[in-house]
Write a structure and sequence with these properties.
The protein is α+β, with helices and mostly antiparallel strands. The chain has a two-stranded antiparallel sheet with strand order 1-2. Strand 1 and strand 2 form a beta hairpin. The protein is elongated.
Amino acid sequence: MTVVKVSGKGQVVIPAAIRKELDLAAGDQLNVTLIDGQVMMEKLPAAAVWREVVAQVPVEQVVLDEAGHYDVHHAPRFDRWVHGER
């Protein structure tokens, strides 16, 4: 465990070993939440990661019925994507 101080502006320094382990760099964004009295920080994906994810989303028309179901035969690429197949 490493102890850090909170500055007058509410800032803390994340120890170098943790920054290295999480591959944190200046400008990276963190999601900060309070859970059971503990401050939790989670690194958010960078824009480049989102571009890669979006590029993998199949482009085809998917029609959902009132229950949220779709016809696998009319949207096979979408179905493979939903189930993690490539």
